[in-house]
Amino acid sequence: MTPAELDERLAQACEIARIGGSFAAGCFADLGSLTVHSKGVQDMATEADLNTEQLLRDELARRFPGDAFLGEESCEAFAAEPGQGVWVVDPIDGTQPFVSNITSWCVALAYVRGGRTLIGVVYDPNRDEMFAARHGGGCTLNARPVRASAARSLADGLVGLGYSNRVPPAATLEPMTRLLRADGMFHRSGSGALSLAYVAAGRLVGYYEPHMNAWDCLGAALLVREAGGRSNAELESEEVLLRGCPVLAAAEGIYPALCNVVHAHSAVDESPVN
Length: 274
What we know:
The protein folds into two domains: about 5-145, Fructose-1,6-Bisphosphatase, Chain A, domain 1, CATH 3.30.540; about 155-265, D-Maltodextrin-Binding Protein, domain 2 (3-Layer(aba) Sandwich), CATH 3.40.190.80. The protein is α+β, with helices and mostly antiparallel strands. Helices cover about 35% and strands about 25% of the residues. It contains eight helices and 14 strands. A seven-stranded mixed sheet has the order 3-4-5-6-7-8-9, sandwiched between helices. Strands 11-10-12-14-13 form a five-stranded mixed sheet, with helices on both faces. β5 (about 105-115) and β6 form a beta hairpin.
């Protein structure tokens, strides 16, 4: 696929993310009418998640009928042919903040093909911020180029930390302790995709979560790499697409230090994907 073809796909992915984000924002403005159900401990879903995903799926199918679809709310039904491009979608990343009337949620899209993430989009409708990247094309925020932080020390900014109930609490708490002892400070928003976008934009110096699903991390991790940072999260195997992985992303200058903070209790490889 040529750079021009990828640019066209990226432009359409941004349009689709905006459509989904606008719909989800309408649901967010009327939270009292939503039915909320639990998928597990601290893992919620609403009509907004389901309906936003269906809207995104329909738009993608209309524009790219030859592509497969992997969404958070319909992942059990995922199927793709060998070599087929796949859109990987989280309709609302940060559902717990969403249902708590907190604005730290977003729409996340990635396009993957041939074992590589080619497009990443994270749209925050609450701030009307569109983070977008394509492989080899840099990262933008509302169409303007952004770069990861120039930080050289963990003390130079905030490190986002995520928590997953799919791993023991120690996998988050022990790296957090080591981060604080290294004069760092943590930040948690409830949306891993949005936090990774903030690393790409230089707002956070790094991010770590002991497990993220593909729809939360693949596109957002591409943002970081295209903004000059580093991230381990990439399609090293189909296992990552189906089961997720631990995620570490950071500005170039502090990636080794953050690896040292999390290394003892994660499967993060100190050799990042570039």
